[in-house]
Design brief:
The complex is a heterotrimer of chains A (136), B (118) and C (254). Chain A is 69% helix and 3% strand. Chain A is mostly helical and 136 residues long. Chain A has a two-stranded antiparallel sheet with strand order 1-2. In chain A, a hairpin with a 2-residue loop joins β1 and β2. In chain A, α1 packs antiparallel against α2. Chain B has 118 residues and is mainly α. In chain B, α1 crosses α3 and α3 packs antiparallel against α4. Chain C is an alpha+beta fold. Chain C is elongated. The C terminus of chain C is likely disordered. The chains are: A mainly alpha (136), B mainly alpha (118), C alpha+beta (254). Chains in contact: A-B, A-C, B-C.
Chain lengths: 136, 118, 254
Amino acid sequence: MKPGPAARRPYVRPMTGWWRRDPYFVRYMVREATAVAVAVYAVILTAGVVSLARGEAAWDHWLAALRTPASIALHVVLLVAMVIHAKSWFEIMPKTMPMILVGHRRLQAKTITRVGWAAAAIASLLVTWLAWRWWT
Amino acid sequence: MKRSHAPIFWLMFGAGGMLAALFGPALVFLTGIAVPLGWLHPSPLRGYAQALALMHSVPGKGAALIVIALFAWHAAHRILHSLHDLGVHAGLAAKLACYGSATALTLVLLSSLLWLGF
Amino acid sequence: MTEARAWPEQVEIDVLRYRPETDDHPVWQRYTVPFDVDMSVLQALQHIKDEDDGTLSFRWSCRMAICGSCGMMINGNPALSCKTFVRDLLPGPVRIEALAHFPIERDLVVAIDGFVKKLESVKPYLIPEHPRALSDGERLQTPEQLEHFEQFSSCINCLLCYAACPQFGLDPEFTGPGALALLHRYNADSRDAGRAQRMAVLNAEQGVWSCTAVGYCSVVCPKGVDPANAVNQNKVNSAVDYFLRFVTNRREQS
């Protein structure tokens, strides 16, 4: 009997639920999900600008809404999401940069991440100081 | 191979993401928690006139436009790609929903900032 | 004082089998293999094939993590079977499956035709600025120039990064981490002048723009290539190319 090539019938496995299969992928999806918090916050701030443009009554209404327990709770969630965003952002930032040689040694990824965190710390202090100065 | 137009949206995603990483936590904390709870100043919140003065200034308008709009464009790009990750095809409908929303928000913001006057 | 660890006599190995001539879909099959403290997963598979079931099909060659043949999913992680030790997977059973995101040809053998085409598409060879004659002598490079591309030349085409990449899993047309890392290897080589010829591959939707920086590819790479870095730094290059093409066009027209 003359041997011949067996018929190729490759089997393609489905991708459904792929991100649930590994903790690394779950963390990735959590990182991506922080975008929802950024979107929600952008909408809240836009509502504030629109309220300001509509007049004092609308502005006070927006401020009152921010003082409700529901809003405070929401902003705690948004804050957690923003911190997760910042942490994962500075961790992935070195991957987008080309190799930088300082002297003869390579600039390490963790150095770049730490510079990012330092910049965030300075930016946070700056914003807080500006808010304090404007408020008092 | 056809050239992708992703760079436009990716740059805005990157700029918005950087702003959110640097300023996001502090802004959310201040506007959403510290100020409403009176931690920054015990007296009632800043009045309408003061807020108006801030938004009349060009730096005030600029900061508001850049930060809020780029937050929206960052989120739109990432959510579009997350939909793809969850099995929703990133076709024209999904792109219109995501980038369209960011466009709408930017236009609303821009028109309010201009309506506020100088 | 530490006691000698009690190693088991045997370990169970579960393999996802698939025989295209008889199976509608893959099925799990359990084997029992005598355990040895220095046994690799590859050796376990070889024992099964030699002693229990000669029909079990899998790729392997060098047994020392340099040929890139023996990539497979071991307990859900992309790994080289010659470099993965059974003692680290105890008590078992050890679950072995063909590399994720690739069509299964048979058992642990996947179809890699697409990947070979992608390798060809990135022009993986030095494209010098001017043709060189033998009499021109050697091309000299400083250690710094070597540093810029050497890491990316370490790729052994094992495809673990493709098995790790969900974007490739969702879209098999994505050029992918391995091929793009190789592309970058040549762009980063000071002897090469072919960057412009490789831009089309980078700039396409299936080029760098399918990547969402999951980063798992670099985690699983057995050679420290860091394909995530190769792909993501080229997003910047592709974006610059996107916006500067109008500038270049105008220059060409005048």
